[in-house]
């Protein structure tokens, strides 16, 4: 008879201790360890079940482990996963076509992470500025906005206004002008003959779900037209249905010159991002000037195509608008002296407090609802777009209990 015994299962505390001992301390996650997920729900290593109201920062708009996307992943992984762009593959042209139909812009450039895509957009804007607009070499300027979040590369943190993103990481990349968000006159004053682009989030998610006043995007877009400046929108978190439209900029009558997408582009299965633009902008790139080994790989392209099909076939954009209206109305009934504002669009909602939101998020975790504080004092609520009314009702009762006890 064998005397061997199976190793005991690791507890939540065991996993946390291992992570703290061997991992970089660059995150401050809630103390649960997720083992599996399905739809809007995740389970931890000790069998507890939670409603996910963060959606991996809107990367799993289609829900966890969506069966159609999973099937595509398996099928493509058994064929070919990576060819590099030294060769062509049979999946990339289909993704190009899907992105063309989605955005109305002529061309796309696939990358992997959202940060890579934002860096790509900035490179495109600068090259366009020099070769098309005629800006003197190395003088191009990009206007960005206070409280922005576009990623964590050196160039992107160079124009962040959040101290913790920048402290200890200088020297920083020049060429960026930071102006207040939702202030058209500040944008007007910042534009110079060397301005090649304005890069903005239609809603500032990381800053606490900050929604500009109606007409703001249209006024910024008009300024861009007047001064021959590219209007570039970062839709990495706000795009692909999150706000009740395919893109958040569609809440106003504008057409960006450049659209950046990521996160939900792959339904959470694989890092896929893309930059979309018309010929005048995308045409400035020549072979060898920009690229990525994994960008446009057949596995990522196949997954992204199916993720977009799911958004369309399951009418998740419309569902986001409907469920978001319902959820926001419920949340606006919350009563507590610490609530500053409840704001949102579609299923991107923030409950702003005048105290730290961390204790509330920790209390909600114990009640079976997962969310995360953003900008310290805002509870961000962004469940998958497949969420049902019954699930939102269930979540609201627990949110109400926690908020009332603040």
Automatic annotation (TrEMBL):
Gene Ontology molecular function terms on file: identical protein binding; ornithine aminotransferase activity; pyridoxal phosphate binding
User: Required cofactors, per record?
Assistant: pyridoxal 5'-phosphate
Protein's name in the database: ornithine aminotransferase
Question: Which top-rank group of organisms is this from?
Answer: Bacteria
* The keyword Signal is assigned to this record: no
Question: Which Enzyme Commission numbers does its entry carry?
Answer: 2.6.1.13
Protein family according to the UniProt entry:
Belongs to the class-III pyridoxal-phosphate-dependent aminotransferase family.
Q: Please tell me which top-level EC class this enzyme sits in.
A: transferase
| GO BP terms | L-proline biosynthetic process
Traced from the root, the source organism's taxonomic lineage reads: Bacteria, Pseudomonadati, Myxococcota, Myxococcia, Myxococcales
Pathway(s) this gene product operates in, as recorded in its UniProt entry: Amino-acid biosynthesis; L-proline biosynthesis; L-glutamate 5-semialdehyde from L-ornithine: step 1/1
